[in-house]
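Hi P.,

Sorry for the delay on this. The queue was packed all week, but I finally got your sequence through. Input first:
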Amino acid sequence: MNEKGGLQKEAMTRSERRKQKRPFVFVCLLFVVSACVVGAWGVAKQETSEQKVIEQFIAALRQEDMHALKQFIDAPLEKEVSLSPLFAYLRKHPEGYDQIKKELAQQKDDRVYIKGLTSTPPIFLMKLSQGIYKFEPALYHVYVQTNEQGARILINDTYVGETNASLVKVGEYVPGLYEVKMVTDEREQTKQISLFGGERIRIVRFDSN
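Then the structure:
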């Protein structure tokens, strides 16, 4: 009789243990599910925030809104002329807005560009700095190649130097449409270059004859 009672008591104890474990398992499952939901919500919120900022940035470019662009662009923009070449390019090539937008969307999933090491930088690099999204324009390194010595070089009618070697670096420029002139006492040569995607280093070649 005592043995039978002992077995019943042991069976009841096991049953009670299972009942005690159920709330614990339920709490663990609830915690895991909650963590997944919160994580997914956080990712979705970040993607929505990034997309919203990209749309606002593209809108500011379309409107050529310098006040708004100064808040977005991570580069010194003291004068409107600093973005004039970009505006000129986009007026001539409106498909450029879609190209910028596409590149920025790709950066959300695949941020592989390393500044200074990649030869083909994105037109704008999207960065998160102190909780604020910024857009850093690519800087294209422009060189002039010619055998003409002592020729004056102008970019968008601004004097930038003279040719004292066969290959001369004339500066670094943000994306846009530029006019490069080589002027001597005898003649003037003009070439137009588009700095909008592609190789970071650009060489403008002029004839010396």
